[in-house]
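Table S2 (text version). Query chain:
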Amino acid sequence: MAAALLACAAQGALRALNIFQEIDDPWGHTLALLTIGVVHRRLQHFEEALDYFQLALAVAGQVQDHAGQAMALYDLGTTYRHLRRFEAALEHFKRAYTTFRQISDRWSEAHTLRHIGDILQNLNLMDAASTYWHQALPIFEDLGDSATAARVRASLESAHPGNLD
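Corresponding structure-token output:
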């Protein structure tokens, strides 16, 4: 059932992509490409997802759409993480983080920091992971996201049992 619904979502996004191209709307074009990429990732068609995210990054770059670029970089990082290509995931998340910070998107900045920490944990680089989680934690707290802040605290505790400082 979920696969059928995702296929419908992909068809709708492809129609939107065609419309945005026809009316020469690069922001809509970027959003449609990102949506198609997410659908492919959800269907575990990871290489296709990467292709759409790369296209979105290129389109967003052509019109200086920094938010679109950051989202494409974030989605590339997420997809590479699913593929367990951790170095590529780190590279894209770090680029996304820099852009989110530049455009003052604190929510995305915090989530990106958290994901960088998670990848470093996957690479068994616990001190480095903790550094990123420590950066993310106060942002989640400032944003009032207590659930994610609690998950970050749990990650810190697992990295260094008995020492959250």
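Notes on Table S2: The mean pLDDT is 91. The radius of gyration is 17 Å.
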